[in-house]
Amino acid sequence: MKVPVAALSVLILAATLGSPAHGSLAHESLDAGFQRPSDCCPSYTSRKIRCKYMKSYFETDSGCSQPGVIFITKTGQRVCANPQNAKVQRCIMNLKQDSVENLRSHLIY
């Protein structure tokens, strides 16, 4: 059975774009203040946030349909999380504390 070229094109496009396994992927915001849909979290990860694998985070812009926190893992993956979740809030606090400690260790007195 032959697959029509249009259907094959759609399948290839869908495979290329893919759907993220850990919530929505994100990119840097545009300088003009506009939000790309990928800067927002249309859904949150269903997986448990393991802070030891996170390198940094940023909060989504108020222009998004719902609030979100986008964690950047040590391997460079982006994970959308619910900012109201207690584990997410603890991870944010830990990352802030680590950032301050790193800054202090690099200061010359």
From TrEMBL:
Keywords: Cytokine, Signal
Pfam families found in the cross-reference section: IL8
BP-aspect Gene Ontology terms: antimicrobial humoral immune response mediated by antimicrobial peptide; chemokine-mediated signaling pathway; inflammatory response; positive regulation of cell migration
Residue ranges annotated for the Chemokine interleukin-8-like domain, each copy included: 37-95
GO molecular function: CCR chemokine receptor binding; chemokine activity
Keyword Signal recorded: yes
SMART domains in UniProt: SCY
Keyword presence, Signal: yes
Domain of life: Eukaryota
Gene3D superfamilies: 2.40.50.40
Signal peptide: 1-26
GO CC, one annotated term: extracellular space
Matches recorded under InterPro entries: Chemokine_b/g/d, Chemokine_IL8-like_dom, Interleukin_8-like_sf
PANTHER family per record: C-C MOTIF CHEMOKINE 15 (PTHR12015:SF77), SMALL INDUCIBLE CYTOKINE A (PTHR12015)
Family statement: Belongs to the intercrine beta (chemokine CC) family.
Identification of the protein by name: Chemokine interleukin-8-like domain-containing protein
